[in-house]
Amino acid sequence: MSAAAGAVLDARGGQAARREHILDAAEACFVRNGFHRSTMQDLAREAGMSPGNIYRYFESKEAVVLGLADRERARGGALVERLEREGDRRGALLGIIERYFLAITRETAVLRVEIWSEANRNPDIAAMVVRSEEEARLWFTQTLAALAVSPACDPVALYGAMGPLMKGIIIERAILPDYDPAPSVAHLLGLIEAGLEGRLPAAHGNETDR
Amino acid sequence: MSAAAGAVLDARGGQAARREHILDAAEACFVRNGFHRSTMQDLAREAGMSPGNIYRYFESKEAVVLGLADRERARGGALVERLEREGDRRGALLGIIERYFLAITRETAVLRVEIWSEANRNPDIAAMVVRSEEEARLWFTQTLAALAVSPACDPVALYGAMGPLMKGIIIERAILPDYDPAPSVAHLLGLIEAGLEGRLPAAHGNETDR
Amino acid sequence: MSAAAGAVLDARGGQAARREHILDAAEACFVRNGFHRSTMQDLAREAGMSPGNIYRYFESKEAVVLGLADRERARGGALVERLEREGDRRGALLGIIERYFLAITRETAVLRVEIWSEANRNPDIAAMVVRSEEEARLWFTQTLAALAVSPACDPVALYGAMGPLMKGIIIERAILPDYDPAPSVAHLLGLIEAGLEGRLPAAHGNETDR
Amino acid sequence: MSAAAGAVLDARGGQAARREHILDAAEACFVRNGFHRSTMQDLAREAGMSPGNIYRYFESKEAVVLGLADRERARGGALVERLEREGDRRGALLGIIERYFLAITRETAVLRVEIWSEANRNPDIAAMVVRSEEEARLWFTQTLAALAVSPACDPVALYGAMGPLMKGIIIERAILPDYDPAPSVAHLLGLIEAGLEGRLPAAHGNETDR
DNA sequence: GATGAATGAGTTTTCATTCAT
DNA sequence: CATGAATGAAAACTCATTCAT
To answer: At A13, is the pLDDT very low, low, confident or very high (cuts 50, 70, 90)?
Structure first.
């Protein structure tokens, strides 16, 4: 808040830091009250700045959600990068699952549902969500391919099985007050294990064929 | 659902039929634009009536969403009942999965995401979602228990594995333009099959224990 | 409610009786919630009839208030007439004061305030109020003149002193929860007594002359 | 109240001055059309600002009326204080009567009736009115006690006689187009004079006892 | 006559966005 | 740069009034 501190922020990366700060505030507000029940005044109060000032960093309220969705996406990428730098691919895979599913906070889950819901009406958000999904799919299939221990392993099919399960864990975390993700995560890990070994418990006789 | 039935209901249906009619309109609007971008004017136009008239049937806009969530819940129960009357338990289980997951429309999926999201800020909706989940859990575990072909079958654990998967299918249907639920449904059926036989591909060594 | 009873009402004085019935309902509603917080639906429910039907007897909601104000006025006249038929002028004067001030109900007082307030914005009501005041003034001055026991009695000046006092009693009855009108009524009677005897405690040296 | 003072307040007055400004506008509107026929748009136009801006200073339309009632109450207290500072108690008493009854404007009277009427349905207003009455009662009885010239003076009884008279003057000012309060005020002064001397023309034989 | 469902203009209130300071 | 007062265009909701039955 001091003039000196402000000057420092302004000089180098001030713009970006301010955006981050606003996104933090927005995240807190959106998790608490959802996107549509949070006003720009709320964000401003939470961020400790004036409403008008937010518009110096984001074109509109919608742009804030978009920024939030994008940050979530980028954070996933950054975590992956860090985990891969720190260890092997298997560790990265397990780390991602640990962080994004086993240890997911209700806040994160709620925010994700909020973004998915917003994608239904905001094409920019929808595009961001699709891009995010695409990046995840790409990384997972590549990682699974690299970790395969059997030529019968089909990374694409495996990720096809993992995808809904992962999203479902997030939903349950968001909507069920006492949900414990541990069993589902264990199931997810079992699924991965089986898939990497090429024995994905798959389709068999599909009884609901039309 | 047929045009004829609709006409009969409209002609002399009274209070309940009007509510249904409004809920149909609301569903169309909410799927198209989401809850918060749909105005009461929109609903009224879609329903072919005046805005004020909607308030004869629903106390508020929130009550419309709640009514929609409740109708979805009740429809599930009704479908279950019909399927059980028409055939055996296995048929009912497969029928539910066919209808709610394999053949799910994007509209239904979007509406579901909308309701889940709304549960984050509307306690009435949250209660309705929890109730709905509870009813589903109860029916599935009972049905699975009845269909078990091995004493090792654990219906509660099995439903714990199925739950996120089912919700994830709905999410993917809602957010991914070209999503085909068939593979995931096949996976779900395989999971059920295995679970009923008591060979649920379970926890094993949990590698992400903290 | 029976067809026969309805027919009887219709044949003779039905119109007037229905108006009275509606005015009763309106009075109850207006006392409870005031004119502006009472809806035509409220009146209809209270009157046990449909909203639309009220419009067969009153042109508009405003006409109902006007009708109520007029009925209050007419009732005063009728009471006066009855009292004068039953006894002497002094008895009539005391009877009016007993009924309209000593034994005034909170409901009546509230209704009166409601009408006075409505006169501020509805010219028809204002005219009715003025007419009502005029009739009262006329009757009181004539009666006071007839009852005078001294040639020094000035009925006009006396009524000028009584008027505000009487209205003030009504106001206090309406706005003060535990108001007891007895002392003020006693004062009013003392004032009349003195006035009739020509010793009205009047102006003396007016210290606030401008 | 002077144009100069108003300008000063407007220029750099902040929150409180803006509230005053809005209350002035509200007063004008309410006197002209009554509370229920004045819209927030009307207030805004009269105040020379946007409707939304009023809500920065008042929570709701009801809060505006409450603010107005409170300002009237406070103004009375302030006038009393000023008069007492400027002169003796007798002067204060006469000054209040001069200002609030002899020189009362139709606007003030109408506003008062509006507030009394509103008290019938708004509990906050009712509480404010009761509080206001209580303050008046307290000040008058204390002042009368101090001014008593005879041990027989009963300030409580005296105020009991004055109260309705004072309110009645306001009513007549509000509802009678050509009302001149002078005679009634003279009567009021006579009453006070008599009361202070302990010869209140009181109850005597109450002829309407039941 | 009577009903009550329906209308739709009008009202309060909110809030994203702007802009003078 | 930053503020926060101000805007004004919606939006939810109400209710006097109408009219098909």
So the answer is: low
